[in-house]
Amino acid sequence: MEIRRLQRADVEGVVALQRACFPPPFPEELLWKREHIERHLDIFPEGQFVAVLEDQVIGSATALIISEENYKAHHDWQTTVGGHFLECHDPNGTTLYGVDISVHPDYRGIGVGRQLYEARLHLVRERQLRRYATACRIPDFSTWWDMHHRIEEVTDALNAYCREVVAGTANDRTLTPLLRYGLKFVSVIENHMEDEESANAAALLEWKP
Ligand SMILES: CC(C)(COP(=O)(O)OP(=O)(O)OC[C@H]1O[C@@H](n2cnc3c(N)ncnc32)[C@H](O)[C@@H]1OP(=O)(O)O)[C@@H](O)C(=O)NCCC(=O)NCCS
User: Fold this and answer.
1) CATH number, domain at 90?
2) pLDDT band at 149 (very low <50, low <70, confident <90, very high)
3) Measured from the CA of 104, which atom of ligand 1 is nearest?
4) Residue 148: per-residue pLDDT
5) What are the C-alpha distances in Å from 65 to residues 2, 5, 88, 170, 183?
């Protein structure tokens, strides 16, 4: 398996991978289409990574650089990254911002995600950026809240859930792996993007070199 920069010939593979990795109820309109990925390659090729096994794309990771001001505002997904074409990419910014990471379901749990993250964190050091950050999905939140319905307010429930995942007393299929990569939990961002399983929220995570 090879981790390398995304190339134009990989684009179809990434489109197919997205479908395998973000099944319903995740909204289909949020997935990358060919024209989006091609634009990412135009604006910031160094930030786009793939994991390739026998000419097949089995993992991918999309990122852009955002300004300090943009990062500190902790806006929703659309405002922070500038939509599917990553219009907020700022080559003079301070923060490498991860937009997505996906590993094909047949190849999970064997360190592909970790290697994609190593490539990202290496880029932070190489470009002498201030930090890496991402707003991470918390797709096991809804199930957890069903079992902890005595917590009435969604804000309280989201914070309690993230605290438990950080402590290791609850497991989230997305947040848990990202914490294992050394990312630190910062806060919950509510109304981050349409994502039913995560109650439209995300966990803001960061890593500093
Ligand atoms: C999140 C994701 C990228 C992780 O990739 P992966 O290659 O399976 O993860 P890794 O093999 O690198 O695992 C990293 C660590 O997390 C742990 N882990 C992996 N999946 C886990 C799970 N479902 N629950 C708990 N821990 C898990 C591993 O045991 C490993 O721990 P260790 O390093 O301490 O041994 C992958 O599950 C995925 O594509 N999910 C769907 C798409 C998605 O939601 N992406 C993120 C939001 S954009």
Assistant:
1) 3.40.630.30
2) confident
3) 39
4) 86
5) 24, 16, 8, 31, 17
